[in-house]
Amino acid sequence: MPNQAESDRRRFIRNAGLGLVGAGVLSHGAWSSAQEAAEAEAPDGARIKEFRTLGRTGFKVSDISTGGPLEAGLLRALLDVGVNYIDTAESYGRGASEKVVGEVLKDRDRKSLFISSKLVVKETDTRDTILDRSRQCLERLGTEYLDCMMIHSAPTIAIVKHEGFHEAMRQLKTDGKVRYLGISNHGSQWEEQAETMEQVICGAAADGRFDVMLLVYNFIQQEQGRNALAACREHNIGTTLMKTNPVGGYMGLKQMIEQREKEGQEIPDQYRHILSKLKAVADQADDFIQKNDLNNPAEIRDAAIRFVLSNRDVHTVCVSFRNFDDVDTYVKLSGTALSAPEAKKLSAYRQGCGAIYCRHACGICEANCPRGVPVNTIMRYNHYFEAQGREKYAMAKYAALPTAKGNVCQDCAGHCESACPYGVPVQGLLALAHHRLTLV
Fold first, then answer.
1. 292 and 309 housed in the same domain
2. Beta carbons of 358 and 375 less than 8 angstroms apart
3. Which range marks the domain in which residue 53 is found?
4. Residues 254, 178 share a domain
5. Separation of alpha carbons 177 and 15, rounded Å
6. With contact defined as beta carbons under 8 Å apart, do 120 and 150 qualify?
7. What is the CATH number of the domain that holds 187?
8. Span 255-312, pLDDT tens digits
9. N or C: which end of the chain has fewer CB within 10 A?
């Protein structure tokens, strides 16, 4: 008898009703007909309806794709509805994610899929260390070649130009093991001199050796993403997005405050003034939400995805799917565009609730912290915990930080908040992130 996950997968596939695309039997040249087949199917169930050219790679990728750690049954369900771009990394589950992808690849036409993996590259890495790790990626994936190898969270332009990496990639390309190169970036890293996402992505685009980028862009965090996307368009570089829905931060904060009040929890004195400021911002946002009919998170979430899909410089949106319901939730947005009423709501949300979102890939305030708290990194780990449901992963990453953490923010004068051009109560969010990521 199949387990619950398998039953859910079968139910989803049956409801989706997708044939040729889901079977994974199409070659590169058949993706236009795959799109026609998807659109011609019965309307019940979600399926990919649009495929976009991934820059100069020429590959037609599904506009909704998948990234991050994924369970095998869930990945199969995604491929069965037409998702054909998979983003993974050697660091996801210490290679476990790549093994899952490799397991699923055994039953698929490899040429119909675009697989990207990522390596963290350090200054101390050499051609040989990178070659060895790349070959391990290929072994875990069980594939003869990788469509794209990315530098994972490239922190600086110096790493973008890392000669050992490029020597290794030249060898792998010659051997037919890697087809394209890429960069991922979501802001400054604690261990490096801060450089913005825009600086790194635009620098990599100008470098000329990279074909695909993975970056942050959403309806609140627009500026850096828009400029990076424009640079990619200029150089005909494929673009993939992450962290496209910034709404979860407000909901998580609101729920935490409400839970504390409901349980009558005593708030430590050192946090009292921070939480009071946070509550004031949350209450103000809540009032705005009610007055402007923005109190449906699912509606805002869908509009947030349509916002980025409406930008033709975007080729695919990498979603961290957590369950089978997420498959239907996000895949149904394929091929859709932002409507005028939705655009109005997003504009209102950005105006009234933008101050509650610590912007991914920003890092503007970090240089002003006298204790060197890695704001961008901590808030990213908080996002993994809060929005992606990766609690253990987020807590482990936070515990491993060798820097000052959010607990030192409780008696600070709030230099980060003074430096934030968006009015975000950063100090309070860091304190709450510490509480969440340590369960203290």
1. no
2. yes
3. 4-245+298-331
4. no
5. 37
6. no
7. 3.20.20.100
8. 655 666 677 765 555 555 556 666 666 666 667 667 766 667 788 889 999 999 999 9
9. N
